[in-house]
Amino acid sequence: MLKSMTGFGKATIESDTLSVTAEVKSLNSKFLDIFCRIPRNYSEREIEIRNLITQSLERGKVEFTMTVTPIGDNSAGTVVNRALVKAYFKDLHQTAEELGFAPTPTELLRMALQMPNVYLADAPTEDQQAAESIQIQQAALEALKKCNEFRQQEGRALAKVFRTSIQKIADLLLEVEELDKTRIPSVRERLRKNVRDLIQDEAFDENRFEQELVYFIEKFDISEEKVRLKNHLSYFIETMESRESNGKKLNFIAQEIGREINTIGSKANDSSIQHVVVQMKDELEKIKEQTANII
């Protein structure tokens, strides 16, 4: 089953004292590139979270954001980091001016109070730390699960795109085979005419002629390319539907498909076939664009 590298997942886990929200966004990348945005009070959890992401998402450019908000009586044990709030307020005000609009001070203050590390809490006990650790892990795992579900959904959509394009290339290959039936007699007649003209030449070399004839026939024969292209198309679908399918392998097969299509176009030396080849390349580009987004 295909899995896209594009995904999104969000989860909130609440207890009597704490609300933890984890959000995961992922885009395509050659490798696993993780960026974590975690409140400073919980920065020691970053390694644990990175390990969870690595085990779950495999590849992609991943942005993980976690927010922690005290609830109920627990919030009474917190104080506002006024210096940080002022810095946020000033930066938001300057940004608004640069963008050409003027929000009210109340709006700016509300936004500043929602920024990371605004609240400073009393040091938690060991039991509280253990409970918070479990809560944070649960939120992260749930967000990663939803992100993976999103990726699988995107993968199913991409699979439909691949099947459609592969089928179109297969249909176009049938057109090439039909056109090739009319091309061969034309090539044969042209060859006969050239042979007749050549035999009348006093400097005719029969051995050289046989060599050139073999080369000419091989140059214009596209039988092997048609067979290989058909096999590559089948192999692409087979790989896509396998449990171990991956974007790198599909991209490699797509390159092989492109190689056979290009060879057919150059060897056929026929305008009608070359017109069909252009349509094949158009469908192949759609496939190549999307294989870069497959894990």
Rounded to an integer in angstroms, the radius of gyration calculated over CA atoms is: 32 Å
Strand order of the largest sheet: 1-2-4-3
Straight-line distance between termini: 10 Å
Beta-strand fraction estimate: 5-15%
Oligomer: single chain
Proportion in helices: 55-70%
* Computed structural class: alpha+beta
Overall, the morphology is elongated
Mean model confidence by pLDDT: 87
**DSSP summary: helix tally:** 8
Query: Stretches where pLDDT falls below 50 for ≥5 residues?
Result: none
Element pattern in H and E: EEEHEEHHEHHHHH
Largest sheet, strands/sense/barrel: 4 strands, mixed
Number of strands: 6
